[in-house]
């Protein structure tokens, strides 16, 4: 999507309600609120089963022990914890994060790591450092909504590459890179979530990873590998990271948001040292230094807690929820619906029978007391109307089974409507600016 897709003209609705509309930078005009935000406010009502948000179930953490740990940080390391720190992040924490990454088969040096405010900030810093307006960023389709928002905020030309059940299509990636080169447009990076993709739930196969790395190397393109869910695997075999197959052309993003807590906002980027240095400079101007307090809490957690056991506990819990969702979908979904079967992570991507629009169906679903995220939010170009993201991380297995029953009620209602009046799909939004969803 080019910058001009997102321009808002004076005199449009925004200018009537916002007297500052003519002052905003072009990049701020690309920052648009979600059309479905109002529905999500409704969706957070207690009677609604929300299959929408990607919130980890932090209530499963030993909260009392974490409370003690926070108290110890204040009483034993208070002056350091309450002081400024460095923009690169606490050196001991960076060592611990390297140890954490060994579970993914990554051999990293602490100096190549920058601690960020969740991996979201790493995405922002990378885009800030690499992308000028109009530069091409390639992503899988569909992809993580807030990554799209970040790339759009920096006025990137976001181009999608399709996925199948084995991950991104390496041939199509090759074609997209060749086309951009022919157009003389620099491709700044290829953004991918190889494990239990958000929103697709798809994991890239080992063969595909090797092909993708070959293509990216041939075109000399940087890869941004976003891996917040990698350790949340419920079955199947772990696959090698792209980072470990790269030759200095991969920036790897990690996060403790899903394996510990998103509230602590600890993520990181592992990058070639020259890139890491630029990211630190960008982080300095964005926030001066990271929260020392949160870093020392996490440092103590990783030092004193059986955190590997905690990840196993999460995996047992989320695995049961994944199973509840998949078995309910198999038992109840009407003919013509399809869905992915994730080996880990938080999300299933479901596609509705022909002629049914997932966004148009959302009000009916909310009436049935269930919520999901319509597929269009996960594309930069308006595709995805027949699909939806279903999260199984937060509701209990019983709530998930009930949520799927209600969802099926909504789909059957839309099928009746379709069979009476024809397709429920509105005019094609393809090629237009997609409304962004707001959920993690
Ligand atoms: N990348 C992906 C694929 C995500 O799903 C998320 C959060 N849902 C993030 C990055 C950002 O996570 P955080 O900033 O909490 O680390």
Describe the structure.
GO terms for molecular function: pyridoxal phosphate binding; transaminase activity. Its cofactor is pyridoxal 5'-phosphate. Pfam families: Aminotran_1_2. Residues 67-407 form the Aminotransferase class I/classII large domain. Residues 1-20, 421-440 are annotated as: Disordered. With 440 residues, the protein is an alpha/beta fold. It has two domains: 28-61 and 309-438, Aspartate Aminotransferase, domain 1; 84-304, 3-Layer(aba) Sandwich (Aspartate Aminotransferase, domain 2), CATH 3.40.640. It contains 14 helices and 14 strands. The protein has helices at residues 13-17, 26-29, 37-43, 63-81, 91-102, 118-130, 145-153, 170-183, 206-218, 273-287, 292-304, 307-332, 358-367, 397-421, and strands at residues 49-50, 113-117, 136-141, 157-164, 167-168, 187-192, 223-226, 250-255, 266-270, 338-339, 347-351, 370-371, 373-374, 387-391. Strands 2-9-8-7-6-3-4-5 form an eight-stranded mixed beta sheet, sandwiched between helices. Strands 10-11-14-13 form a four-stranded antiparallel beta sheet. Strands 1-12 form a two-stranded parallel ribbon. A hairpin with a 7-residue loop joins strand 10 (338-339) and strand 11. Helix 4 (63-81) packs across helix 11, helix 12 (307-332) runs parallel beside helix 14 and helix 13 (358-367) crosses helix 14. The longest helix is centred in the last third of the chain and has 26 residues, at 307-332. Residues 1-15 and 431-438 have low confidence and may be disordered. Residues 54, 118-120, 144, 193, 198, 226, 228, 255, 257, 262, 267, 440 line the site of 4'-deoxy-4'-aminopyridoxal-5'-phosphate (PMP).
